[in-house]
Design a protein that fits this description.
Layout lengths: L1 H13 L5 E3 L4 E3 L1 H4 L29 E4 L23 E2 L7 E5 L2 E10 L5 E10 L9 E6 L2 E6 L8 E6 L6 E10 L8 H6 L1 E5 L4 E4 L8 H15 L1 E6 L5 H11 L9 E5 L15 E6 L12 E4 L5 E6 L4 H4 L20 E3 L8 E3 L3 E10 L10 E6 L1 E3 L8 E6 L2 E7 L11 E6 L6 E10 L17 E3 L4 E3 L6 E2 L3 H5 L17 H13 L14 E6 L15 H7 L9 H12 L3 H27 L6 H4 L7 E4 L8 E6 L5 H11 L10 E4 L5 E4 L7 E2 L8 H11 L1 H31 L1
Parallel strand pairs: 14-15, 14-16, 16-18, 31-33
Antiparallel strand pairs: 1-2, 3-10, 4-13, 5-12, 6-11, 7-10, 7-12, 7-13, 8-9, 8-11, 17-18, 19-29, 20-28, 21-27, 22-26, 22-29, 23-28, 24-25, 24-27, 30-36, 32-33, 32-34, 34-35
């Protein structure tokens, strides 16, 4: 009876056709269900590509388009009355980032990947966009390039909603294509930095791509990956059809593997029952699915996994419950380590080119370009040493007075340069010196920011050929060397977080949202280092407020109530009327009551003064309990023991959003403004506020020698000037006493 049941289950999911069951050998013939139409092969073994003529050849300068104000049901122009192609392509473009990418300012572009399945026949290239109403269409263009060759160019005209442009696909090739979409935009009224923010074009990547005639192509793993990528980009999901309850570890593993398909993040597995006739929650044009069969019920599927066709079009990755992670490595490999910014060696001169940055060309009235890099984890400079940037740059002629060029280090402006008076020529190399203390161990940013006003500001910007500002890739960066020293930092453990760092088992009996956060963290935390040994991986334990007693808060002199207040949404403060009532009541208070309040204020003032004095001896923030007063957030990241920097704890509030917490923690590993110090609070706005303790001297990770003694002493002196002065005074006192003792002891012998 079990094999007809399987046939019924699979037929409900994909087709009314029943499976043929071989009862004699216990094997299951799924070919009628899954193989679908076969694609003929050529003599060389490759699938034959049907010859399909593109229906409409469109000149590059005049692409045809359809309006899309009604969402997924566009209205075609009268000339295209017989064209029934949907405006959602079979295979969407993919790029790192969100589904909708914004091109902002006077000049901006995005490079996207378009992976066309082998064995497909391409019809149309589809671009879906909308633009700001502030754009002057007559003086603006959108250009599409394929491998550097222009495909089409048109004037943006979609201020009322998304609009679909249909372009010829005859320049595209099967497989991976690199498409560049470039926007050159002009404000219809104003000119200047404010106008730059007001002009933009949104590209809907999920609804931009290629329309193919024969679906997903041949049933092989490469085409399945292409189909799965297109499915994930379209709606962020990947259907999982199964009649069994999949294990949590398997779900997490599949979601992690989906992140390696080149999309903006992992897919959400959408569980579907094979008994359901409908595909609720899945796009009708789903290109890929995963099917999970119970190996105990169907021994004939032991050879799985494999890729097959379904009669309805999608490619299917057929798996069994006995499928192991090793079996999936060839089909859906785990994502590779994230490409991190290049290392900068302190004490050596480095060019921007060596930091993977070509010449920087800024063409907008406002633009900021970041140059990320990484310093060693044990690099520490607390003295007044200077880093230096030997700047090579030029700017356009006749820029208006007030044009500025800002150079920033980790968000702090270190130099303001005027951009008027000497335009059109390469300027002499300019040394820009800044405090090395602005840098930090780990990831850093040097930013170049242009602010160019309009002249006049209430008219359209004039056309300027070429970039407004250029920074040469030969610009030099020199960061001073330091002894190997460290302060307690969350960033050290953050950089060593991997999916295996998250303790999932310990959270299975907690609140549902905590389990969801832990699972999503395990999916999003792609390793930053491929060769990280297990002993160097950080460990992240997630706990809810209900289980906060398991967190070692006492190691940080932090009480439970303080954490609960910070992670629990607070009621609005008193209104002005209530405050007036309080002031009135205070006016008529008894003298004893007023005296009590005055004594509280005196004690508070004494405490505040003591904390300020203490800060001179032990630099850093207030004690953590005091620092958290008045702060509000959705999650608190802790490193309770500075001697074990790889042991991290995450406390999440009841209202914490699983997706935002996971994304913020994953992104914070590469952000110079991410979690730092010994504790960090994730605010409701997704910003990390870090607490740096006022205790604990820097640790020296190398032998003290004559060569590094001065730098080591300088770091300790800068860390705590009071302690340094005290030690210096003690040394001088001991020296004086020894000198006096020598004089007294030798005075008698000198007389004799």
């Amino acid at each position: 009876m079990r094999y007809p049941v399987l046939a019924f289950i699979l037929s409900c999911a994909w087709s009314p056709t029943l499976a043929q069951v071989g009862a004699e050998n216990g094997q299951i013939d799924l070919s009628l269900l899954l193989n679908g139409p076969q694609i003929a092969s050529s003599d060389d073994g490759l699938p034959q590509i049907p010859s399909v003529e593109v229906a409409i050849q469109v000149p590059a300068a005049l692409p045809r388009y359809v309006r899309d104000d009604a969402g997924d049901n566009p209205t075609l122009p009268a000339t295209d009355a017989g064209d029934t192609k949907p405006n959602r392509p079979n295979f969407a473009m993919s790029a790192m980032g969100s589904e909708i990418h914004r091109l902002s300012g006077e000049y901006d572009e995005i490079a996207v990947d378009l992976d066309v399945p082998l064995g497909s026949a391409m019809n149309d290239l589809i671009i879906t966009y909308r633009n700001s109403i502030n754009i002057m269409a007559d003086n603006s263009t959108i250009t599409v390039l394929h491998e550097g060759v222009e495909i089409a160019k048109w004037q943006p005209n979609a201020p009322a909603g998304f609009q679909t442009v249909i372009l010829p696909a005859n320049t595209l090739t099967l497989g991976l294509n690199r498409i560049v979409i470039r926007a050159e935009q002009s404000h219809r009224i104003f000119c200047g930095p404010e106008a730059s923010f007001a002009i933009w074009t949104d590209i809907n990547l999920a609804r931009s791509g290629i329309d193919v005639a024969n679906g997903t192509g041949a049933p092989n793993i490469d085409n399945f990956r292409r189909a799965a990528r297109a499915q994930i980009v379209a709606d962020g999901t990947l259907p999982l059809v199964t009649a069994v309850v999949p294990a949590t570890r398997l779900m997490r593993d599949l979601e992690r593997r989906s992140a390696a398909l080149g999309t903006s993040g992992p897919a959400r597995l959408l569980l579907q029952s094979p008994y359901s006739v409908t595909s609720e929650g899945v796009t009708s044009g789903a290109q890929a699915r995963i099917v999970l069969l119970a190996a105990s019920d169907f021994p004939g599927v032991a050879k799985l996994p494999e890729v097959r066709h379904s009669p309805q079009g999608p490619l299917i990755l057929l798996m069994s419950t006995d499928t192991t992670a090793d079996m999936l490595d060839d089909l859906l490999p785990l994502p590779s380590a994230i490409v991190v910014p290049p290392d900068l060696t302190p004490g050596q001169v480095t060019t921007l080119n060596a930091l993977n940055v070509d010449d920087i060309a800024i063409r907008s009235r406002y633009r900021r370009v970041d140059v990320p890099f990484r310093l060693p984890d044990d690099w520490l400079v607390l003295t007044a040493q200077r880093a230096q940037l030997d700047l090579q740059y030029r700017y356009a002629e006749n820029l208006p007075e007030g044009s500025l060029f800002l150079i920033k280090v980790n968000g702090i402006t270190v130099r303001r340069l005027p951009l008027f008076g000497e335009g059109g020529v390469v300027l002499p190399e300019l040394p820009v010196r800044f405090s090395a203390r602005l840098l930090k161990p780990g990831f850093n940013n040097i930013s170049f920011e242009a602010i160019i006003p309009g002249d006049p500001s209430d008219m359209t910007c004039p056309n300027i050929e070429g970039p407004l500002l250029e920074v040469s890739g030969n610009t030099l960066v020199n960061v001073p060397a330091s002894p190997r020293m460290q302060l307690p930092r969350l960033s050290l453990g953050m950089q060593r977080l991997t999916p295996e760092s998250v303790d999932l088992v310990a959270n299975l009996d907690g609140p549902p949202h905590v389990e969801e956060i832990a699972t999503m963290l395990a999916v999003h935390l792609v390793a930053l280092d491929d060769e990280l040994p297990p002993q160097d991986m950080a460990r992240l334990t997630v706990r809810s407020l209900e289980r906060i007693n398991q967190v070692p808060l006492d190691m940080m002199s932090l009480d439970r109530s303080t954490v609960v207040r910070a992670l629990t949404p607070q009621k609005p403060e008193r209104t002005d009327q209530a405050l007036d009532v309080a002031v009135t009541e205070d006016r008529f208070a008894q003298p004893s009551q007023r005296a009590g309040r005055n004594s509280d204020e005196i004690r508070s003032g004494i405490t505040s003064s003591w904390l300020r004095v203490r800060a001179l001896a032990w630099p850093g923030d207030l004690p953590l309990a005091n620092w958290m007063v008045g702060r509000q957030g959705q999650a608190l990241l802790l490193m309770p023991d500075p001697t074990h920097p790889l042991n991290l704890w995450l406390i999440v509030g009841a209202s914490a959003d699983a997706g935002s917490v996971a994304r913020a923690l994953a992104a914070g590993r590469l952000d110079p403004l991410g979690p730092d110090g010994q504790a960090a609070l994730l605010t409701e706005d997704g910003v990390w506020e870090s607490w740096r303790p006022n205790a604990g001297a820097p640790s020296l990770n190398e032998p003290l020698t004559l060569a590094n003694a001065r730098a080591v002493a300088g770091n300790y002196a800068s860390w705590s000037p009071v302690w340094f002065v005290g030690l210096l005074a003690c040394f001088m006192s001991i020296s004086v006493l020894l000198g006096l003792n020598y004089v007294v002891s030798t005075r008698g012998s000198l007389k004799r």
